[in-house]
Amino acid sequence: MRAGLKLLALTILFFTSSLILLSLINVELNPLGSTIVRTWCEVRADVGSHNPTECLTYFNSGRIVLEEAISLSLFLFVIAGTVLRMEWRVGLAGLSVVLLVLSNIVPPSELVGSAVSWDLILFLVGSMTFAGILRELGVFEYLAIQVLRLGRSGFSLITLICLLSFVTAAVLGEVTSILYVMMVVLEAGTILKTDVVPLIVLSVLATNTGSAALPIGNPIGVYIFFSAKLDMSSFMRYALPLAVANLIALLATSYLLLRPYIKTLDRLLKTFNSNIEAYLTTYYVSIDYRRKKALSFGLITLLTFILSVSLNDYIATSLTHIFGIPVDPHSLLAFIPYIFVTSAFIIIPLEELSKYLERSVDWPSLLFFIFLFMLAYSLSYTGVMARLAYILSTIGGTALMLLPIVLVTSAALSSVLDNLSLVVAFTPLAMTLYNLGIVSKVVFFALLFGGVFGGNFTPVGSTANIVAISIAEKRKVRVAWHTWFRIASILTGVQLLISLMWVLFSM
After folding, report:
1. Which tens digits make up the pLDDT trace of 252-273?
2. Full-model pTM
3. Which of 69, 188, 268, 296 could form a disulfide with 19 if both were Cys (CB 3.0 to 4.6 A apart)?
4. Residues 93-126: pLDDT tens digits?
5. Is 104 helix (H, G, I), strand (E, B) or coil?
6. Are residues 275 and 136 located together in one domain of the fold?
7. Cβ atoms of 93 and 378 closer than 8 Å
């Protein structure tokens, strides 16, 4: 009841402040203002005229400002409700979309036809199902065992856990990565009988770092990839090198910051060496011929999946040349997971594949994503993002100023807000700046880096953070906010500084 009253009070505050602030932003009839408003008018069927003066008059009218205030306050209403009670998010997002439709602020045809990246939704369903199959085949357990087998010193254990987090997040997604890396971390804590909170924080930071390397690693990366129509080569050029550099920085900084903890791990690893050997022996003895065959198939399938995603653009180009019909790389990528899901019938009975579809896919989260995309689209449709683009362009002026502003702002906000919600809201703004020729496509990566690395500051900054904390609490391991921030603030600060230099270097 108390949370509901807080949300109601916040909603009133959001609407009032949005209405006041948006009414104060008056777009002027200058080259920048005319270009921004003309771009907005092109997506509005109700404008009636694309004459710059008429468009500008309509854009600055009280009716449009009211629509913008309602749209923005509904979006903030969902974000605030999610922060107050995570389990409310689907219901609140659905309610907000219904209000948009009933108030006719955004036509239903626009929400269905233009707001949602359905290829993204299709890709997420396939990827989650594929991850569930790999889990059943024992791939993740095998990777965890290898970490325990090779990590015979404190820093080598930290390095291997971070590498496992980084790689699995890059190719399978942050949620899948942290689920299984947390199993490794908690099992290591049980064997060594030591505090694993620093390992938990490091594994989450490494997971989020790896999730920025490729578009499939993080929902915000996938969203930016599809929304901005980027190609895999762009991620290979801008995102992957920075992610690797930030992983190295994470390891180097943690070696200096956590030196006493690393020495404790060294001592414990020597003391409990026999426990580790017994654990490994039990695992290897338990693998029979059938499990070994399934594991081999899973590892080969995983490697082939990684290769297919990496070569997606080349495959699309080759298919275009072979069949003479244009093959869109983004649409092709949406179907790649299903190639491997359907091939699993070699090991798994065909009738059981539907069970993995039911159990492995986070359907409430997908529905939340769909509603969130519709709410974010309403920010563009009503003109909120056009108005913000005008202000940012006026203040920043050049790409040299705008790129750091985008990076720092998204990082600061994602530390306290869900980073997917933040990026969904900011992507139309980035696209507006890009379409106007004010910035290059590096702006999308500035948004990605800010959203990903900024989420490392607090336990609620990203989905991986929240999942890790939840798993730890189930095992009676408490991660205090001040402990998290003490470790993560310095490590994340270094990563953001490197990201800022990389963005400026790449512009």
Report:
1. 999 999 999 999 888 888 777 7
2. 0.74
3. 69
4. 999 999 999 998 998 988 888 888 788 788 878 8
5. coil
6. yes
7. no
